[in-house]
Amino acid sequence: MTAPTTITNHLPTAELQALDAAHHMHPFTAQGELAAKGARVITGADGVWLTDSEGHRILDGMAGLWCVNIGYGRHELADVAARQMRELPYYNTFFQTTHVPAIALADRLAALAPGDLNHVFFAGSGSEANDTNIRMVRTYWEMKGKPSKSVIISRKNAYHGSSVGSGSLGGMAPMHAQGGLPIPDIHHINQPNWWAEGGEMSPEEFGLARARELEQAILELGEDRVAAFIAEPVQGAGGVIVAPETYWPEIQRICDKYEILLIADEVICGFGRTGNWFGSQTLNIRPHIMTIAKGLSSGYQPIGGSIVCDEVAAVIGGGEFNHGYTYSGHPVASAVALENLRIMEDEGVITHVRDVAAPYLAEKWAELADHPMVGEAKIVGLMASIALSPHKDSRAAFAAEAGTAGFITRERSFANNLVMRHVGDRMIIAPPLVITPDEIDILMTRARKALDEAMAEIKDQGLFVPAS
Ligand code: PXG
Q1: Which of 101, 170, 231, 248 has a beta carbon 3.0–4.6 Å from 160's, enabling a disulfide?
Q2: CA–CA distances in Å: residue 458 to residues 59, 179, 371, 398
Q3: Span 258-269, mean pLDDT?
Q4: How many whole angstroms separate alpha carbon 272 and alpha carbon 276?
Q5: pLDDT above 70 covers what percent of the chain?
Q6: Domain 40-70+349-460 - what CATH class?
């Protein structure tokens, strides 16, 4: 670990924070609140460790924003980027031209993706890729002579991006409340979140019931109206919601029975996160399209895309698809993604997840369920969550405003130099895939300390009370 303990090559932290507050608008942030407090300034990183402007070393339990799969500080990616910038920093792929990095990356992805997912439409991000998907599946059905099939079914509390299209696909109520979302012909069914919504049902019954909402929606809307169903194999930003085991087989049965396309949003689950290249492989899903981004380049460059099956690509290819981004298949981003995939393969990163890191973390994470403030503890590969509860037997929420306990726990975690996030009153982690057992021990020690301190604070504030 080479992260410096003192940082001298920038303005003092308070000045950086003041400039940040004055000029930098942060995503998903109450700007005024942050300005009063001052953002934490991250200055460097190596492996799973971040360094801030005050010289703290912070264990990044979130791999940045679920993306730095191979960890920080891999200079090979910087070298490849510099070489590609000198050779061909940019060219487009719109007007009957192409270039070597995009060709090589598309070929590589076609080989890695399961089944007949053999064609790649590149984008700059997951949001852009899901916008591509909306237009692609609707165009597919138009070209097939079925233009009425335009409705895309998604799920409440799903996250598919922040653009107008992808934000509409997502099922985040606070997002729909701003800016006129959703666009027409997006339909949301309930999520398979047994802890919060399972009521008296067993997880298995609940998984089936929630999957059958897809069938009900198709029948109510009419099979001739439905174009596609989109879902994350494991809901990430929604709180690492792992569906009961009965859920996905039933969803697959329904998608097979009715003529609708299945889009697996692999932006978080892809590239090793669940212990396979794709979450669809872990959960036995056979999608027609997969959305990719994040781990594709381990976040070293912004790049995303849609991996598309032979049938959809053939139909779309029968005409002109009037869609694309300036940076679709950007040569530098593509070259960096290729190098990232090479490292993952040559160094056996997915084998490390499957055989070492995920089983070790799973064992330690399950022990958290014994903590007096923790209800269920869920994990798939290296994405994990715990539900906070003042009364786990009844799966009760806190009487306080939703997210209060989660926020306090997150603050205690940050104070203990661990990035562990909260989504409402669920705590989540998704560390870099290269995390070692020793580092997992440190993560767990800090997580437990954060939980203990947070519980004391929550009790002090009189908030350790179940909602009635
Ligand atoms: N699909 C999924 C499943 C995602 O998680 C996107 C699409 C959009 O990707 P871009 O590259 O456009 O951001 C995402 C992004 C959070 C959080 O709070 C999660 C994401 C983005 C921002 C915040 O966990 N995921």
Answers
A1: 170
A2: 24, 35, 14, 10
A3: 97
A4: 5
A5: 98
A6: alpha beta
Per-residue model confidence (pLDDT) at position 1: 47
How far, in Å, is the centroid of ligand 1 from the Cα of 264? 14
- The model's confidence at residue 10, banded by pLDDT at 50, 70 and 90, is confident
Please give the single-letter amino acid code of residue 84: Q
CA 115 to centroid of chain Cα atoms:
23
How far apart are alpha carbons 460 and 458 in whole angstroms? Answer: 5
Would you say the CB of residue 423 lies under 6 angstroms from ligand 1?
no
pLDDT of residue 9: 67
Largest CA-CA distance found in the chain, in angstroms, rounded: 66
Q: Is the CB of 265 under 6 A from ligand 1?
A: yes
Q: Do residues 332 and 301 lie in contact, with contact meaning Cβ atoms separated by under 8 Å?
A: yes
Is the pLDDT reported for residue 8 higher than 60? no
- The closest alpha carbon to 167, from 128, 137, 141, belongs to 128
Tell if the pTM clears 0.70, that is, is over it. yes
Flag whether pLDDT at 32 surpasses 50.
Answer: yes
Domain boundaries, the chain: 40-70+349-460, 76-346
CB atoms within 10 A of CB 370: 8
Distance in Å, CA 161 to ligand 1 centroid: 5
How does DSSP assign 96-145, residue by residue? S---HHHHHHHHHHHHHSSTTEEEEEEESSHHHHHHHHHHHHHHHHHHTT
Q: From residue 6, how far is each of 12, 38, 53 by CA, in Å? A: 12, 20, 8
Instruction: Check whether 427 has a pLDDT greater than 70.
Output: yes
CATH number 3.40.640.10 is the correct assignment for the domain at 76-346: yes
By alpha-carbon position, which residue is closest to atom 1 of ligand 1? 160
Task: Quote the ligand 1 centre to 64 CA distance (angstroms).
Answer: 11
Write the pLDDT tens digit of every residue in 178-203.
999 999 999 999 999 999 999 999 99
Average pLDDT, the chain: 96
The alpha carbon of 160 and the centre of ligand 1 are apart by a number of angstroms equal to 6
